[in-house]
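User: structure tokens for this one?
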Amino acid sequence: MKKIFAYSFAAALAVFAVSCQSENLDPQTVTDEQIQPVQMITETITATADEGNTKATVDADAKFAWTAGDNIAVHVSNGASYKYVLTSDTGASGASASAASASFTVVYEEGYARDAFAVFPASIVATDAANYGQSGQTLDVTLPGTYALSAVSGENTPCPMIADNTGSGWEFKQLCGLLRLTVSDIPSGTSYLKLDFNGRKVSGAFSVASPVTAGTSTIASVAGTKGTDDFIKITGITTETSVTVNIPLPTGTAYSDLIVSALNVSDVPLKAQVTPFSYTASRAKGKKLTSALSLGVFSIASGKYAVFAPGNLQYNKSTDTWSFMDNQYDMAETASQNVGTDYASQNIVSLFGWGTKTKPYNTTTVDNYNTSASYDVDYSWNEWGDNVIDGYAAGTWRTLTGGSGAEWAYLLNTDGSSSGRSDSYRFQRATVTASDGTTTIAGLLIFPDGYTTQVTGDNTGLNQTGDGYPFTQKTYSNAEWLTLESNGVVFLPAAGYRSGTTVTSDVGTYAYYWSSTIGDNGVAKCVNFSSITLSAESAFYRGNGCSVRLVHPVE
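Assistant:
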């Protein structure tokens, strides 16, 4: 719904005499300008919201209200120069929290006049803008990168508006869209929330091109490299487990994903959530989105963090689409599938040759899998995360690096060195029960940073890399697994591997998960685990089919 705010003005001319301390002036050097009193114009502005909605349109039944502290930046000109003057810093004088109209007072020098526009809230006007254009219609604004929860929660909306000076009054309309975001499952110890718009500019300085026209002009985002201007920080999180915040969103090219993370007072991520967000912000309309902080955060290098994708990667031949498994314990291939005779008819693939972003399978050769007899010649690196996956934009996810000292090794710290993640709970071989209550799946539990209590009460085999720790040492019921998952625990199923034209091997007893790192002699690095080994530095022929679990950095 379009916003129109009509303003009427009662202007009164007032004279403010500037005292000339004549006894301190040399009569021979006093000029007419020095003794001329400064004339000031005072205008009282009555603001009325014709449509009666909020300062940004999301809910049709949300009512507009001017509140104490609201402030307007009024653009004035004397024909040669341009500047802003602010209304009274108390704002909305005499208005209650539910008032749809209020009065504002602005004072500026005689010789100036109200120019083409005024801006709300006044705080977004760029104080360092040196030139507002020849006509005074170039607008430079600054959207903050940090908001206090009290300033953006509930119906508090910092969405900027601009008013045309129509002569008989002003009409305020919005300059950008709005995101009304509900964040739930905020973990205890959270100091602030960080909203990452994945490379879209949402804060900092913006320039609105001349001429500035209410209802037409917008604050437009731009795509670019990741930096401080694609984050919004929400402070003031104390005991809340769920909050709703209203964030102004510049218009322009569609947004892709939103990564919400909860951080403690030491700036360490506690939990996060990656959410598809295919949305083109509209000046006249807002967008609702929810984000449950369900993903655990994992250290993958010193000071670097990531969250895991919700399941193993899979490819659908018939639709040529990529997606994640419905459950973390799901896998597509079974031990009975023979590549040479059955692979061509197998529609869902989840064991891939290394780096097969654009070649997850091949049907042009005899064995329907490899394009060369050596298995490795045609497997150069391509990032699976560069595909669109389950509605997430290309580039949202990526593969961890592998080998000694790399990300997989740091995460699991399988060599027990001081250069890896040192949490008491890092991993555990186990079996989890599927939602049918009967099927059990062997695999590896990986615990998130800061995990200090095994919620099921069984610590058997924690962080053990060698022989004698079978997957059957602990079987978790489906309810127990769901509790673990809700606490951010990751499960990698032992999906086996595929080699050439042989059957899929070792399902339920071995697992191989690719990294993005090439090894010596043409092999690639991977994670390998079973009941007798767990290594983040293994190597495998690139033509072999292995599992893929992607991550997204939390920065």
